[in-house]
Amino acid sequence: MELPPRPTLFDFHGVSMTKYFTDNWENIQSFKARPDDILIATYPKAGTTWVSYILDLLYFGEPDCRSSVPLQERVPFLEISEPSRPKGKDLADQLPTAPRLIKTHLPVQFVPKSFWEQRSRIVYVARNAKDSAVSYFHFGRMNRVLPEPGDWSCFLQNFMQGKVVFGSWYEHVNTWWDQKQTYSNLHYMFYEDLIEDSGQEISRLCSFLGLSPTAEQRELVQAKVTFDNMKQNKVTNFSTVSMMNQSVSPFMRKGRVGDWKNHFTVSQNEQFEEDFKNKMKNTALVFRNEI
Ligand code: PPS
After folding, report:
1. Is the peptide bond before 99 cis (omega within 30 degrees of 0)?
2. What are phi and psi for residue 131, nearest 5 degrees?
3. Residue 164: how many CB atoms within 10 A of its CB?
4. Does residue 49's CB lie within 6 angstroms of at least one atom of ligand 1?
5. Helix 152-160 and helix 266-279: axis angle, to 10°?
6. InterPro entries annotated for this entry (predicted)?
7. What are the backbone dihedrals phi and psi of residue 120, each rounded to the nearest 5 degrees, phi first?
């Protein structure tokens, strides 16, 4: 099958986007959220898949009838609209589960208003900027849904300027953080905390969602969501998606905190730190670049 060409980036209401995430815009904006929907919101590469699988297992376990259903069908990607695949919004509409788990990378100002009106619960996952940039770079290399990333130094400049799909990492994490201050049904969590102590983060998720899994269920979830198990698992490793070339870079790539050290030069790091301080000077948010 011939694959479509890479999309180009354009300015969409002040955010860099491509057609694969804006083509179905009116339908996405009129999405009818329900009070029990759970939206998993992230800037790309923050651990969306990890948290999606945790929530999916906590709510539904993995009975035989679901064991071969890929995660991208269990937890649809709301705004995606790519050739030859069902639109994320339609998959979300058709989800038979309650609650419905729905993934988005939209900046907070683009989230369909029904989620706020229905007071749906939202889990936002954030990851430090340096590892996010590295992970996003490799993802761009292997995923034809994204523009060509160019070489690492070119991609890093674009990342710092917000010239990547879904725009500025800095604005994304900050505006979602601001939203948390006024919208109480939002749980803001960090990839680094999940790496450090997934058990504790799962407990926090459970208390936010009002779930009380048994010790046995909890252990089962924790075992299934380790990096190695998710990398081997066809449900979670995106190996069935034709737009992704896993031989260029696997979707489940490293799964670590601090891989940025293998990519940033000393001078890139200095420039990044300086720019970071400036862009993040008005926030109480704290990120960990190593643990
Ligand atoms: S996407 O495409 O934006 O939805 O990607 P997303 O799922 O947000 O992020 C992918 C990165 O998360 C890592 N990952 C994990 N790390 C540790 N443990 C587990 N279980 C896990 N699952 C996914 C994945 O490897 C990507 O990070 P990198 O740094 O590229 O390895």
Report:
1. yes
2. -70, -35
3. 24
4. yes
5. 10
6. P-loop_NTPase (IPR027417), Sulfotransferase_dom (IPR000863)
7. -65, 150
213 alpha carbon to ligand 1 midpoint, in Å? 24
**pLDDT in tens for each of the 291 residues of the chain?**
677 899 999 999 999 999 999 999 999 999 999 999 999 999 999 999 999 999 999 999 988 888 899 999 999 999 999 988 899 999 999 999 999 999 999 999 999 999 999 999 999 999 999 999 999 999 999 999 999 999 999 999 999 999 999 999 999 999 999 999 999 999 999 999 999 999 999 999 999 999 999 999 999 999 999 999 999 999 999 999 999 999 999 999 999 999 999 999 999 999 999 999 999 999 999 999 999
Which domains does the chain carry?
10-279 (3.40.50.300)
Has 105 been annotated as catalytic?
yes
Q: Is 200 exposed, middle or buried (0-12, 13-18, 19+ CB in 10 A)?
A: exposed
CA 237 / ligand 1 centre spacing (Å): 10
Q: Which residue has the tokens 């407990």?
A: 203
Q: Is 45 left (phi over 0), alpha (psi -120 to 50) or beta?
A: left
Ligand 1 midpoint to CA 157 (Å): 22
Adjacent-strand bridge partners of 188: 124
Q: What gap in Å lies between CA 35 and CA 210, rounded to an integer?
A: 14
Other beta carbons within 10 Å of 253: 17
SS3 122: strand
pTM over 0.85: yes
d(CA 192, CA 186): 19
Q: Which residues contact 286 (CB under 8 A, 6 or more apart)?
A: none
* CA proximity to 31, closest of 82, 69, 73, 81: 81
